[in-house]
Records
---
Amino acid sequence: MKITVRAFADYREFIGKEMELIVPEEKTIGELLAELGDRYPKLRSEMFTPTGELKDFINIFINGRNIAFLKDMATPLTDGDIIALFPPVAGG
Amino acid sequence: MGGYNLDRYQRQISLWGVEGQESLRRARVLVAGVGGLGTIVAAYFAAAGVGFLRLADNDRVEISNLNRQLLFQPDDIGREKAVAATEKLHNLNPEIQIEGINKTIDDETADELIKDVDLIVDALDNFAARFILNKAAFTRRLPLIHGAVRGFFGQATTLIPGKTACLKCIFAQSPPREIFSIFGGTCGVIGAVQATEAVKVLTGRGEPLANRLFFWDGQAGEGTITVTKRNPHCVVCGGD
């Protein structure tokens, strides 16, 4: 299945703006992010704690829904999903 | 419109008519946070003739604010931001009512600050306060214009109870509070977007950023839209 990953802000420096990935069926967002982390160690160190947990204030959207309100890292991916990775932007 | 000189607004009345301007004159707006975003948004509101502005912030002006908080000058260092900003904006437009309140948004103050306004601008600097404001705004069914900035990056979206996702549908957690890097121009971009959103909602013109998160990447020179969706299990709005 085809998955589009869009990176925003600092994350673009690590993985570029957008990539299309062909991945096998029955993959979760957690598995996909782990694979991206292996390919891009800087992305991994920004998004994950040293023990491998996703930092809880990182915003990951699948088709506009924050995975924190889906099944988190166990959220399954489906063909055509658009994933957006946003670091926190919180100042004012 | 006694004491409200329409000539002043001539160049925008041609956009939305006298009735649109009357909507702005009658509007009561809370600007929550009078920092990098709040000073910009409030200045555009005052210049555009929004009839009542409440400016809420409990900080005082510091020298490190002056790179972006364009309402403040060296003489203001140490003064309450809400008071100093009220004074500057009154000079900019004495035809409107401005109320500066030296309070932050918390569980005690939120409802008091919003209960008699028509629209709220989130110009806060942390998500803990934003989530409190979001809940209060949803309870009162008030439109909330979200904005946030860091470095060369910024985001904005318009949250309308019953029509769009609320802030808690989109963002899950409060990032740790930090002294964030910021260039004034980023506040200018996002503050101007927020002011535009507010004016659209108040005059009924245009297409608000409803269920659309505008993200500004000043480094790349690019703005993007990410479509957002309501969370049917949202602890604040329940997807309503």
---
Amino acid sequence: MNLRKLAIAASVSAIGLSAALVSPAATAAEEQFFPVLAYRTGAYAPNGAPWANGFVDYMKLANVRGGVNGVKMIWEECETAYATDRGVECYERLKAKHGGATAVQPLSTGITFALTEKAPVDKIPVITAGYGRSESQNGAVFGWNFPLVGTYWSGADVLVQHIAKKEGGFDKLKGKKIALVYHDSPYGKEPIALLQERGKMHGFDVSLLPVAHPGVEQKATWLQIRQNKPDYVFLWGWGVMNSTAIKEAQATGYPREKMYGVWWSGAEPDVKDVGEGAKGYSALAMQHGAEPNSKVIKEVLASLHAKGQGTGPKEEVGQVLYMRGLISAMVQTEAVRVAQGRYGKGKRITGEQMRWGLENLNLDQKTLDALGFAGVMRPVHTTCIDHMGSGFARIHTWDGKKWNFSSDWYEADQKVLRPMVMLASAKYASEKKITPRTPEDCKK
Amino acid sequence: MFYRENGQFKTTYQSDQQIFAIPQDRWAILAIIAFAFIGIPLLVDEYLFRAILIPFLILSLAALGVNILVGYCGQITLGAGASMAVGAYAAYNFLIRVDGMPALAAILLGGIVAAAAGIVFGAPSLRVRGLYLAVATLAAQFFWDWAFLRIKWFTNNASSGSVSVADINLLGWTISSPTDKYLFCLGILVVFSLAAKNLVRGAIGRQWMAIRDMDVAATVIGIRPMYAKLSAFAVSSFYLGVAGALWGFVHLGSWEPAAFSIDRSFQLLFMVIIGGMGAIAGSFFGAAFIVVLPIFLNQMLALVGGWFGVEVSIALVSHIEIMVFGALIVFFLIVEPHGIARLWSTGREKLRLWPFPH
């Protein structure tokens, strides 16, 4: 009897002990790894750094909130200096770390072009919120690219709609002259196709004025603008090119009220140094503007920056590019949540499962409100075929001190965009010998 | 000690005229090539292949091209990037416009088109020399940059000037994995290096060197400067064109003119100056120095910071990287102005006498 008791006691305690030993391992949080391709040095650092700060801060916030069903976000930064070859090297360096990258956000159209070739092989989705190839909206051909929330074509389309509204209708655009001052790279050239298409539709004239990297030499460009006197100037710049353009506009006396930037040309670093001189300059807001009063920013300040755990200077929290980084991290975190819903809650997901999450993203107003993004952005709903999810944007204007919204919401016209996207992606598919995915493939 | 040549007699002209006259050298080179073909694919992971080895091989080939022109013929060029661009875009156009064109043939044809373009833009070398020629070759760089950015035909009307190609297929071998790409580039590099080594040892190479050392004297002894200079431009551009096509087809897969900007031209010229002008091996040393060292420094600094428990920010790391890299360039140029290849050959000469120097 005693022996039996002893045996039972021993086995019970053994189970208890082993459970005690095993349980920390079992509850140790699973981790989800995201490489951060940032640029905090070089000509584009003033714009790259706030984005990276927002991006990292949101992942920290997600961890403070308890991760995604307990799964913690981990990340590692790598400096690209906006150079394509260094970006590719960073991607190769980080993609296999910590069990493999979940998704990558390069914040450079040049690097996006290069990674587009690698993504299908490595099975890592490339998220390009507000940049990248416009035709990659078509998920049937670009299975791994996600230009979430906006592409350059949707942005340019909204700009044309805005000036049409200002002029009093699309028919009033006939004979108008629009000059596009653009960064002479794939990034700057993206909107040209759409503007020319719209120009043909409404009879306005598009003149193209390229500016060479890094964009500090623009004297000749603005002399041309002074000669041609275009009715509007669209600015497609990045980094120092933006503030230089606005200074040159001031010097040549081109009215800032007639200048419209893309959403990468409408943030604080672009206008801060010009200050009053940039008053009246407008830019696209990729849904959000500067949002220092939003709920999520208050939460970031309270739970990270107040405790000294924030990234970057506190004053920049809530600025335009910081918000862009924040939103870019938010959509990817939510995609992890969606993917977990299908592949197992509280489990680490792979790049392939992440793709499913990104293709079935359904951020309705209620979810956004709960995450603290009320008033910051509109619902995003992606499908296997539509990798953009939302074509809304609005305009904000610099008043000399801060950005204020100056228009209502616009939605990019899919009747214009869709045929262009299909044509361009079909060409890419034939060049790369890709068979587009069918609705059956999507279900997998 | 390793270089004891006692007892090695050259009994035929053939053995005296070999590329590597000393058997030890010959065996060492063969061992390196064998290791590169067999050993490395077994040892190396994907990161090293895709981020370091493939760019290194392709840029070595390009540096070889620049070395032929700058190092052997003495014609300074700042249009190397342009030649690469011509090769890449020509190969792309052959591939998409000619039905059933094999990719390897397209790459070689790209090289031939680049050679033709090189001859045209090398013509000023018949009149101007030295730094003035360098300025003249800038014209090639700017012209081709402009052409590929603005002339839609070259890029097949791509909306943003960026073109892409599918994986190469070579006689049923689809080159898609990093190992395949590495072996493909290595194969081409070995063949081209051997050809370059033989070219510079032969009559044409001697003409180039004569022109480099003193063109008036070369003319007096019966060398035609036009033929010698333009042939150097053609051969160099051919190498650069093939390297450019490989850079686009194999390394990037999809590219834009910015991949072959003036920065690339400078980078290639620096490779040759640091590696060693007028030495085939110098091209490899230079490419290794410029391609591998910054990445190595970048990773080392973060690692060293980790040992001391300091979290080094990526901005600081890349600032230090640039400073150390610059300091190393100055160091090597002071220690040996003739490049790393000269350091290597001095070391080898010393080894031949060791341990009993005079």
